[in-house]
Write a structure and sequence with these properties.
Blueprint: H1 2-11, H2 13-33, H3 38-61, H4 66-70, H5 73-79, H6 84-113, H7 119-146, H8 153-160, H9 165-179, H10 185-214
Amino acid sequence: MLLRDLLLANRSRADYLNPVVFFLLIATLFPLAVSIAPENLRAIGPGVFWVAAVLASVLSMEQLFRSDFDDGTLEQFAIAPQALSIVVLAKLLAHWLVTALPLILVSPLLVLFYQLPVSSVAVAMLTLAAGTPAITATGALGVALTVSVRRGGVLLSLLVLPLYVPVLIFGASAIDQAAHGLPIQGPLLFLSALSVLSISLMPWAIAAALRITLE
């Protein structure tokens, strides 16, 4: 299942490049509307960085189960012998690899763009690696609840964006503390805990939501 989804993503690269482009556009255009003074960039940098990451992730979430739902493959997964939660977990991993991993790889550019210390580069990448699994798993639950709704992007955003607030707060806090030379263990541990909890529980909740949607 993981290999299948990666191959499908490779055939529609444009759909999965959009979040990266969106991420870069938000982060690069935002200072033009505020100020390009170095002290202002350093102050708003961590917040803008994580807001851009969250919005880019939401942009890519709607397609997670859409094609499988439209062609009936999702129904076959639901009646297959293997647990639907295992299928969901594989799809979450594939989605994280093709959407969140590119964001992690381009994140150093934005950290330097906002004139944050070079030491913040590793912290930004680490916070994204720790927080994006929670974003993917939580967003997938919203997708499972809205997959039968045509053009449900607005509804999906209303459902999942409030749930992203803790990840947003701790992610931005970790980068801000690193920029000021403060320890980052607290926010980083919270991010990791949220991701572990999400990956542990969400596949079963998503599988249940998909079964309800298919009924």
